[in-house]
Amino acid sequence: MNDYVGTQLRGWDAATFRTASGDPTMRSTVVALAVLERAPDWVRLRDRVERLTLCVPTLRKRPLYGLFGFSAPRMAVDPDFDLDVHLRRYRLPEGAGWQDLLDDARRMSLTDFDPDRPLWEAALVEDLPGGAAAFLLKLHHSIADGQATVLMGLSLFEFAPDTDPNEPPAPEAPEAEDVTTRDVSTANLLDSARWGLGVAEAAARGALGLLTGTWSDPQGTWTGAWSTLTSIGRVAAAPDAALSPVLIGRGTTYRFAAFSLPFADVRAAAKEHSASVNDVFLAAVACGMDAYHRRHGVVVEELRINVPISLRGDAGDRSGRASNAVSIARFPLSIAGLTVAEHLQQAHALVEKWRDEPALRLADPLADISWVVPVPMLAQVARASDLTTSNVPGPPMPLYLAGVRMTAVYPLVATIGAAVNVTMVTYDGTASIGVSMDDRAVQDPQDLVADLCAGFTTVTGGQVSPDPAP
């Protein structure tokens, strides 16, 4: 069999690719918007991006599809990889502002990837207000979660304006060649057979463990087994519908907004209440969503929220790889009638409760099983969530791209079935928040963003900046 058939997407990565390909409301892209003091030298920037693709081989890999179309695609090095296909530069029209930049990021996010090329693209946008520039990096969610995007950035950005002479050299370009559909199909069949054998072996080990445990410690063994089974039921439970009477309707388009506040204000609020940064983030979002529903004349007790739980650092994770290493906790979050302290306590308790769920560590095997579930059913489950939130820690010091300082970075993530996605990235003393809003669910995006800003002000007492200006 040909050595260049690559590896098959498995688990969460495969499920993400499949649903994004099968339903336009599940389009799954991550756009990182980096604001730069000025436009960097193009040749130097191009060299940095090429280095990134050598240090992160996923960015040189294309999907390969088998004959039957049932298996997940394989990711293999593209023999026709061309950096200039993925990287470009342009200027917005004269007089364009920051909202125009966000609108362009939106168009970039809503444009489908070429299914036969590596699943990313990037652009340098020049001549922004004040002489600034922006670098947009778009990734398919099947090859990177938020933390993986930050890890990629460590191979792209530098810690000083001048190139570090001690920086390790980039690896050589990986070899690649054409493969046939037959090669891919054969590799898929062999991988599926190995996967099935692995499942059978795991089942046999589990049965043997139950048998021996029943003999040596029956109560502990069956209590643990029952705990795992009930946990799987909670994690895999499919909700009937979203909870908000306001955020109704789901479509194929969404809009972006961005704002920021001093990270010191977030940390101070966390310290004051003996809470975590993530607790403050979730509490602020809950306050903002409560205000938005009251603006519409309704009091909603709970919203269904998706919260990614990072598994990096767990045994068997894939840290260091440009891939996903998360599981999704989905639960009702109370938003009405709580004090700030109660919001913080609730956020902490809920996340910790779900982090301890045994089934979260089974995310990849459960996602593999989802391959037999029709995409419309998976999409319906996703659309039953009102809100997705994610908090991604970033570097605390300034970074430079091709010699130019990055003044801010904003995460702009597709809604992926939910009505709203709110993602926070911390960088160099600033907490930057990106918001995506389904056009059908949110017809007054400026009001929603204003209420989210007010929520952060309520919880932190800090000043919120309403746009991505440096």
Task: Describe, in plain words, how this protein is organized in 3D.
α1 (11-22) packs across α11 (363-369) and α2 packs across α5. The radius of gyration is 23 Å and the shape is globular. The protein starts with 6 loop residues before the first strand and ends in a 10-residue tail after the last helix. The strands form three sheets. The chain has a six-stranded mixed β-sheet with strand order 5-6-7-2-13-12, with helices on both faces. Helices cover 39% and strands 21% of the residues. A hairpin with a 2-residue loop joins β12 and β13. It has a domain at 254-460: Chloramphenicol Acetyltransferase (2-Layer Sandwich). It has 13 helices and 15 strands. The protein is of the alpha+beta class.
**CATH domain topology of the domain at 254-460:** Chloramphenicol Acetyltransferase
Number of helical segments?
A: 13
Strand share of the residues?
A: 15-25%
Architecture per CATH nomenclature, i.e. the level-2 architecture of the domain at 254-460: 2-Layer Sandwich
The number of strands is 15
Largest sheet: 6 strands, mixed
Global outline:
globular
Compute the separation of the termini in Å.
53 Å
Provide the residue-averaged pLDDT.
87
Cα-based radius of gyration, to the nearest Å: 23 Å
Low-confidence stretches: 314-322
Task: State the secondary-structure class.
Answer: alpha+beta
Helicity range of the residues? 25-40%
* CATH class term of the domain at 254-460: Alpha Beta
CATH superfamily of the domain at 254-460: Nonribosomal peptide synthetase, condensation domain
> Largest beta sheet: what is the strand line-up?
5-6-7-2-13-12
Task: Give the ordered list of helices and strands.
Answer: EHEHEEHEHEEHHHEHHEEHHHEEEEEH
